[in-house]
């Protein structure tokens, strides 16, 4: 066990002994370090005013990610580099190209959102050369600006590499030194901190994790903290102890196992997107619209499943894909005991999952689609990007040689207290040809499957209508070639040609 | 040093006015160095306050047990109404209808009951949750329908505008129709939430740093609550992280509570609510229901309009009077109604008290006007744009001896350029060809339908409360030739500071770096008006110029005497001063003037000419001039889900002779996108208990980067100096562009109409969420089939 938290702020090493386990990075910066460049606009991961960039070693490679400092707990930065807007100016006081581009393009008005945008653009620049407008929009979907209307900020994103080439960026030039510094901070030991009378553990191995959970069955498991962070900043929960899963490399991996993909529970939503994009462009688009870039960088597949949310975006898609979940826990003799179950049976009832004491999600296994399977996913939300689904539908269907439907999965989010298959509608499809009549039969059966809720996102009536119309869309997209079936996003752009 | 001085001397020959200069704080914004209230280095002994809020929307407060709050860790004090030494009221209209802390009546969910002060914000926030309040709950009136059903109590006097005999004109109209439209409200979502820091001084002195658009009002309120004179209170704000009207009166609460706590505990106190609490407590843009009857003829000419604009005002009057008035002032937009009656109905509801928001009721009034046009277009089968043009002010025909330039409030439209702006934009954006192409493409696209609409804007500039149209400034010239500038306007991102600095630099022939912009403070310029009604640079630019002219007059007199020249031969040129045949540096002149004991500091003052308004009679000349613009929007909708995308927008906007085209473009683009959010995805939802359900960015959706139109052609109207002698012939630009977004609502409507072969008026209400669009699609389909 190690009792000191260690990370780099800029290039400066920091060591902290004793730390409130849920002190946010933003509060630490603003209140303790008096670095007030990063702003609090919402304290819930939605506005991006607090965006900072975190460098971390991913299987030995330095990776820079924009994240929301307002919902990230400080001790989870162990072994990482933290960059804030204060680190960008050159030693001579000159503006960094990202900053210069923002000034030249008139990218700030009130300026409150600006540090966050600067940091999101910095992360984009460090990761990609010559990003397209669409990519810049994606990278900024987690940053709200109420003043500019975004046009000049997008222009700044287009301009930054022209001001000075990406290769010359000081952060990229220092990459190797930084990676070497971070490597010295990785020690394979469990980090154990205490502060405000509460405890924080960050194990470095799966077995250490299993033991910790066994020893503290009431521990709050923290993955990307894009949900848990809000328990603290909004719910004012005092979590104790906190067990952070982010240092365990074994949980981070995504691997191609031939007929299926295997995701470690801690695979980030960005990694999940990259892998799922190979299965279907529809999955690429689904994940593109998941939260904002900061949430996709921090949030994990394990967290999106384990939180049991009825409106999580991955579960419907994964259920339609016949994914299975691997749950693990510590067993006698230091062994790990594992059990595998179909993802859909993990969700028992509203906010109730089949997770036994001591268990944690270790991995998700996603079979690849057979070549004859039809597959379709739609997320419908009030705002197109960075919003929670009102309805999410993921469908898969296979037919026999004569064109009759033999197998189907229609999985929905937002329609019930859990992500759920529409069993009656599925049954209505079996044995029919894939045509309008079949869709009409399935739609007619949907009210047997669901009695959705009215809430601030949508009315029950809208949800039910859209749930049916998404099946129509599925049919049109898999049988006809209409000019266009989607208004925006990757799929619309692909249709535009 | 020499270099720096030379820089001061070399001002651009053209002068800074009219230059596309960056925001004065741009370099600080991008570096995180711009200081907002919450960034100010904590004064020694700083404490933090937090508000305790009611958890019911309506009823009586029976008891309030604060024992657990007091006992919570870190707590040093608790404040209730009993701790207020002055008056327990912060109503900006002096109606005594806005208690700082509730004592008995609970009027909305989230009403402040008490404040707790602790060592850290976290401690105070946690302690605030520990109060035990008992209520005798009553059924809350949440929306307009409920308020009307319960008798329709008003928070303030309604307004009626009437011209002509409405009943007769409607009866005589060849055709008439009736309808009703819901127009949603809007949360400001300034990125910096409300915040105030109060620092007590000697005697009764109190210094308050607060994110406010109206320092003088905060000063007055803090004085009243503390029972001290305004002279004891100094209010300062260097910049806000966005305001949009949401900090015109809404900052008063936070400033007063911080000051009250600071007085009681004799220590500096900061109050910054969590975003969700800010959204629950503070007022928003008013939502309206507009009931209308329109008389018209087959040619699409409007004969008469009778409209009732009912607004959800919330639990107190606040600015609801002037807001609902301004809605009526814009129920004509650019159109002449031969006979008209417009009435407002400012309704009391048990919801947060709605307030100023960019456009101040004008946008809602105008949304109604465009609905009237649309109804007439569908009824007559004409292109809505054609109907718009036929009903513009001016035009050829005159109706029954009335000029076609008379507004419903009897002000003549003297500077009408709406027709020019519309036809120019129509040509530039190729409206007609694109409209035809869209219709053709829609016929072949079963799922995705596109739509286009071009709508104009005419927005009246001036506070309708005539006395607010005044401003003061203070200009100091120091011995080294540098200038310190101060005025009553506040900076919230709109670029007011840089614009006024440009004016001042130009007046002295200096470069901008010679002018130091200083924080707005009541200690320097007193009795200021809110920075609102788009008036910031009109008023403060003029006041600052007045101060400069005073100093220049003194300098000219001095120079003439000193160098034995005639005053007419003294000229302030860029970077230098001509004194007869010789040219000297500004700095040289200043040094000489100082030695000759010439006063180098002056105040400036300005009042807007020409305006007057008799509210009782509904007649007057409330606006100094109008700002114009037009926008054409093209959208695509998904008829299966109601999702949509704004694909292209073309804008032509009238800024007069722009003081700073870069800043003005920013206002146009930003205002447009904000207006688009209002009319599309920004939906406020209350639950049945009267609790605001959409009180966080996770549920309240303002536009993100990908919502802005990918094709966004924005042009400032060229060669269009203001006909009135405003500051350098510019026009106000803060609010008018917001209403350009009405084009989006109508483009969506056009797309929806395609499913009924353009025969059925979609009557799309706002906000047009995907759900509303899908509803409209289904309704139009059904009606067209029947
Ligand atoms: C701004 C914003 C936007 C969002 N947008 C979306 C969206 O578009 N779609 C969507 O679906 N969600 C969205 N979310 C919700 C959230 O980001 C996701 O659910 C995310 O996947 C959660 O992952 P995490 O790693 O951050 O989980 P955490 O917050 O760390 O944990 C979530 C829950 O899962 C538990 N948990 C985590 N990992 C494990 C594990 N391995 N084993 C057992 N239990 C575990 C935790 O104890 C906790 O109960 C959004 C959130 C925010 C703040
Ligand atoms: S403060 Fe809004 S995302 Fe962090
Ligand atoms: S500049 Fe004000 S919020 Fe972006």
What does this structure look like?
Chain A is α+β, with helices and mostly antiparallel strands. In chain A, 33% of the residues lie in helices and 22% in strands. In chain A, a hairpin with a 3-residue loop joins β10 and β11 (260-264). Chain A is globular and about 70 Å long. The mean pLDDT of chain A is 96. By secondary structure, chain B is α+β, with helices and mostly antiparallel strands. Helix content of chain B is 30%, strand content 23%. In chain B, a hairpin with a 2-residue loop joins β21 and β22. The relative contact order of chain B is 0.12. The model of chain B is unreliable at 1-13 and 396-401 (pLDDT under 50). The interface between A and B is large, with 92 and 89 residues. The complex binds flavin-adenine dinucleotide and FE2/S2 (inorganic) cluster (2 copies).
Q: Residue share in helices of chain B?
A: 25-40%
The assigned CATH architecture of the domain at 415-465 and 624-786 in chain B is 2-Layer Sandwich
Give the helix/strand class of chain A. alpha+beta
Side-by-side strand order of the widest sheet of chain A = 2-1-5-3-4
Q: How much of the polypeptide of chain A forms β-strand, as a percent range?
A: 15-25%
Say what oligomer this is. heterodimer
Main β-sheet description of chain A: 5 strands, mixed
CATH superfamily annotation of the largest domain in chain A: [2Fe-2S]-binding domain
If you average the pLDDT of chain A, what whole number results? 96
Cofactors and ligands: flavin-adenine dinucleotide, FE2/S2 (inorganic) cluster
List low-pLDDT spans of chain B. Answer: 1-13, 396-401
Number of domains of chain A: 3
Query: Average pLDDT across residues of chain B?
Result: 96
Helix count of chain B? 20
Shape, principal axes of CA atoms of chain B: globular
- How many β strands of chain A by DSSP? 20
């Amino acid at each position: 066990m190690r009792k000191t938290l260690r990370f780099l702020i800029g290039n400066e090493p920091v060591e902290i002994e004793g730390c409130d386990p849920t002190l946010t990075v933003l509060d630490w910066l603003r209140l303790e370090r008096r670095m007030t460049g990063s702003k609090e606009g919402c304290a819930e991961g939605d506005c991006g005013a607090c965006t900072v960039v975190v460098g971390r070693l991913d299987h030995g490679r330095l990776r820079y990610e924009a994240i929301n400092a307002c919902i990230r707990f400080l001790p989870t930065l162990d072994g990482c580099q933290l960059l804030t807007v204060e680190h960008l100016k050159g030693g001579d006081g000159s503006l960094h190209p990202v900053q210069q581009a923002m000034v030249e393009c008139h990218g700030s008005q009130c300026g409150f959102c600006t540090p966050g945008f600067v940091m999101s653009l910095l992360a984009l620049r460090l990761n990609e050369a010559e990003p397209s407008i669409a990519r810049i929009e994606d990278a900024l979907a987690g940053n709200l600006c109420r003043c500019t209307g975004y046009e000049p900020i997008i222009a700044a994103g287009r301009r930054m590499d022209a001001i000075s080439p990406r290769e010359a960026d000081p952060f990229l030039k220092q990459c190797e030194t930084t990676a070497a510094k971070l490597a010295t901070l990785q020690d394979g030991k469990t980090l154990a901190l205490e502060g405000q009378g509460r405890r924080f553990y960050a194990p470095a191995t799966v077995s250490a994790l299993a033991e910790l959970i066994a020893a503290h069955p009431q521990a709050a498991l923290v993955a990307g903290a894009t949900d848990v962070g809000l328990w603290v900043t909004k719910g004012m929960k005092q979590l104790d102890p906190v067990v952070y899963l982010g240092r365990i490399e074994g949980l981070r991996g995504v691997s191609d196992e031939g007929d299926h993909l295997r995701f470690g529970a801690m695979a980030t939503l960005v990694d999940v997107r990259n892998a799922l994009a190979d299965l279907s462009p529809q999955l690429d688009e689904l994940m593109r619209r998941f939260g904002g870039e900061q949430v996709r960088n921090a949030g994990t597949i394990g967290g999106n499943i384990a939180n049991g949310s009825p409106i999580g975006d991955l579960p419907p898609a994964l259920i339609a894909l016949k994914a299975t979940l691997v749950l693990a826990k510590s067993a006698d003799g230091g062994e790990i005991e594992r059990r595998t179950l179909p993802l859909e049976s993990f969700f028992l009832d509203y906010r109730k999952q089949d997770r036994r004491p001591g268990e944690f999600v270790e991995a998700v296994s996603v079979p690849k689609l057979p070549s004859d399977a039809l597959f379709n996913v739609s997320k419908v939300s009030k705002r197109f990007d960075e919003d929670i689904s009102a309805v999410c539908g993921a469908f898969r269907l296979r037919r026999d040689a004569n064109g009759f439907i033999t197998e189907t999965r229609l999985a929905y989010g937002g329609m019930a207290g859990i992500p759920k298959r529409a069993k009656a509608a599925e049954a209505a499809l079996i044995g029919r040809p894939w045509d309008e009549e079949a869709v009409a039969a399935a739609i007619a059966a949907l009210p047997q499957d669901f009695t959705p809720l009215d809430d601030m996102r949508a009315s029950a009536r809208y949800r039910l209508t859209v749930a049916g119309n998404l099946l129509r869309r599925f049919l049109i997209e898999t049988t006809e070639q209409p000019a266009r079936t989607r208004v925006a996003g990757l799929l619309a752009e692909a249709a535009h040609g | 040093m020499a270099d720096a001085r030379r820089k001061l001397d070399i001002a651009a020959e053209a002068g800074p006015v009219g230059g596309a200069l960056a925001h004065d704080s741009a370099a600080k914004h991008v570096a995180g160095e711009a200081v907002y209230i919450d960034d100010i280095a904590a004064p020694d002994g700083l404490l933090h306050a937090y508000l305790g809020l009611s958890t019911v929307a309506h009823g009586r407060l029976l008891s309030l047990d604060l024992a657990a709050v007091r006992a919570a860790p870190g707590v040093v004090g608790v404040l209730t109404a009993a701790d207020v030494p002055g008056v327990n009221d912060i109503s900006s209209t002096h109606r005594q209808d806005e208690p700082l802390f509730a004592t008995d009546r609970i009027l909305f969910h989230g009403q402040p009951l008490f404040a707790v002060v602790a060592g850290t914000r976290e401690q105070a926030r946690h302690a605030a949750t520990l109060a035990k309040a008992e209520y005798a709950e009553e059924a809350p009136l949440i929306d307009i329908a409920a308020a009307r059903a319960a008798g329709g109590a008003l928070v303030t006097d309604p307004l009626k505008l009437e011209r002509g005999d409405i009943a007769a004109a409607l009866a005589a109209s060849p055709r008439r129709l009736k309808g009703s439209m819901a127009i949603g409200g809007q949360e400001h979502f300034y990125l910096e939430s409300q915040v105030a820091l109060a620092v007590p001084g000697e005697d009764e002195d109190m210094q308050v740093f607060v994110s406010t658009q109206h320092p003088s009002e905060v000063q007055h309120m803090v004085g009243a609550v503390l029972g001290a004179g305004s002279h004891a209170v100094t209010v300062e704000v260097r910049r806000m992280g966005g305001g949009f009207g949401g900090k015109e009166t809404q900052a008063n609460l936070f400033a007063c509570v911080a000051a009250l706590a600071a007085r009681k505990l004799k220590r500096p106190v900061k109050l910054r609510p969590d975003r969700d609490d800010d959204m629950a407590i503070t007022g928003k843009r008013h939502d309206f229901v507009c009931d209308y009857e329109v008389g018209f003829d087959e040619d699409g000419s409007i004969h008469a309009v009778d409209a009732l604009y009912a607004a959800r005002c919330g639990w107190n009057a606040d600015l609801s009077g002037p807001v609902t008035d301004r809605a009526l002032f814009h129920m004509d937009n650019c159109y002449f109604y031969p006979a008209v009656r417009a009435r407002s109905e400012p309704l009391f509801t048990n919801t947060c008290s709605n307030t100023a928001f960019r456009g101040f009721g004008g946008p809602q009034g105008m949304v109604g006007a465009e609905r009237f046009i649309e109804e007439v277009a569908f009824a007559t089968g004409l292109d809505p744009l054609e109907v718009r043009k036929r009903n513009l002010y001016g035009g050829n025909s005159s109706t029954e001896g009335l000029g076609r330039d008379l507004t419903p409030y009897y002000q003549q439209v003297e500077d009408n350029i709406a027709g020019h702006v519309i036809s120019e934009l129509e040509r530039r954006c190729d409206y007609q060809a694109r409209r035809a192409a869209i219709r053709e493409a829609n016929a072949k696209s079963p799922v995705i339908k596109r739509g286009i609409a071009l709508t104009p804007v005419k927005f009246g500039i001036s506070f309708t409360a005539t006395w607010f149209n005044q401003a003061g400034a203070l200009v100091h010239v120091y011995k080294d030739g540098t200038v310190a500038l101060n005025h009553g306007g506040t900076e919230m991102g709109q670029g007011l500071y840089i614009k006024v600095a440009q004016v001042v630099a130009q007046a002295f022939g200096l470069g901008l770096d010679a002018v130091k912009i200083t924080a707005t403070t009541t200690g320097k310029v007193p009795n200021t008006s809110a920075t609102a009604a788009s008036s910031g640079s009109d008023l403060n630019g003029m006041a600052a110029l007045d101060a400069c002219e005073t100093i220049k007059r003194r300098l000219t007199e001095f120079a003439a005497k000193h160098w034995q020249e005639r005053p007419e031969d003294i000229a302030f040129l860029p970077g230098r001063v001509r004194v007869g045949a010789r040219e000297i540096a500004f700095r040289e002149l200043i040094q000489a003037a100082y030695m000759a004991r010439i006063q180098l500091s002056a105040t400036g003052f300005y009042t807007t000419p020409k305006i007057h308004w008799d509210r009782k009679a509904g007649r007057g000349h409330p606006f100094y001039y109008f700002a114009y613009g037009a926008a054409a929007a093209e959208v695509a909708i998904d008829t299966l889900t109601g999702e949509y995308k704004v694909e292209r927008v073309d804008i032509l906007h009238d800024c007069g002779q722009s003081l700073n085209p870069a800043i003005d473009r920013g206002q146009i683009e930003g205002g447009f996108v904000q207006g688009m959010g209002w009319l599309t995805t920004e939906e406020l939802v209350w639950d049945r208990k009267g609790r605001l359900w959409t009180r966080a960015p996770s549920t309240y959706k303002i536009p993100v980067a990908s919502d802005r139109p990918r094709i966004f052609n924005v042009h400032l109207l060229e060669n269009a100096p203001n006909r009135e002698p405003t500051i350098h012939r510019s026009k106000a630009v803060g609010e008018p562009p917001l209403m350009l977004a009405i084009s989006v609502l109508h483009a969506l409507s056009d797309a929806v109409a395609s499913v009924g072969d353009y025969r059925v008026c979609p009557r799309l209400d706002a906000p047009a969420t995907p759900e509303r669009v899908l509803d409209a699609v289904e309704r139009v389909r059904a009606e067209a089939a029947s």
